């Protein structure tokens, strides 16, 4: 039950990532006060299994690599979804990651 609640908190943050921007598993974990739980954020993204209300394609690793791409249907769906939003990807890595990075700790009120 506790894991489910954490996953729902992760999904709530992911829903706030603006189109054309990306964040990392670790950034979401830090925002939620669980800095050492980046891997659990990844599990949450994998567990959402393409729920249309959760833009899991906007969550990448701390270097901007599409590490979760294997959990999307089709070979390049994660990349295609990002590119549809104007995000450039080359060799499974976000181009201009530092510019496109959205940090929930900077962008969201901690009471949200």
TrEMBL record:
Against CDD domains, the record matches this protein to: ATase
Residue intervals of the Methylated-DNA-[protein]-cysteine S-methyltransferase DNA binding domain: 5-87
Q: Which InterPro entries match?
A: ATL_DNA_repair, MethylDNA_cys_MeTrfase_DNA-bd, MethylDNA_cys_MeTrfase_DNAb, WH-like_DNA-bd_sf
N-terminal signal peptide: none
GO biological process terms, alphabetically, are:
DNA repair; methylation
Would the keyword Nucleotide-binding turn up in this protein's UniProt record? no
User: What keywords are assigned to this protein?
Assistant: DNA damage, Methyltransferase, Transferase
The UniProt entry, under Pfam families, shows: DNA_binding_1
Q: Which SUPFAM superfamilies would you find in this protein's record? A: Methylated DNA-protein cysteine methyltransferase, C-terminal domain
Q: Does the keyword Ion transport apply?
A: no
Q: Which domain of life is it from?
A: Bacteria
Cite the GO molecular-function annotations of the record: methyltransferase activity
Please state what the protein is called.
Answer: Methylated-DNA-protein-cysteine methyltransferase related protein
Q: What is the lineage of its organism?
A: Bacteria, Pseudomonadati, Bacteroidota, Flavobacteriia, Flavobacteriales
């Amino acid at each position: 039950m506790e894991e489910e609640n954490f996953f729902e908190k992760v999904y709530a943050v992911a829903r706030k990532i603006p189109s054309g921007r990306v964040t990392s598993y670790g950034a979401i974990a830090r925002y939620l006060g669980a800095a050492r739980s980046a891997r659990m954020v990844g599990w949450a993204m994998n567990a959402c299994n393409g729920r249309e209300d959760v833009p899991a394609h906007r969550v990448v690793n701390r270097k901007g690599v599409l590490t979760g791409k294997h959990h999307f249907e089709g070979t390049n769906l994660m990349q295609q979804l990002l590119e549809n939003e104007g995000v450039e990807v080359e060799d499974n890595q976000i181009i201009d990651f530092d510019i496109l990075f959205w940090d929930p700790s900077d962008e969201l009120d901690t009471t949200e």
